[in-house]
Amino acid sequence: MKSVHRHIEHINYSYCQQLRNAGIEIIKERAVFVDAHTLDLNGHQVTADKILIAVGGKPNKPQIPGKVKFK
Question: For the whole model, what pTM was predicted?
Answer without folding.
Answer: 0.54
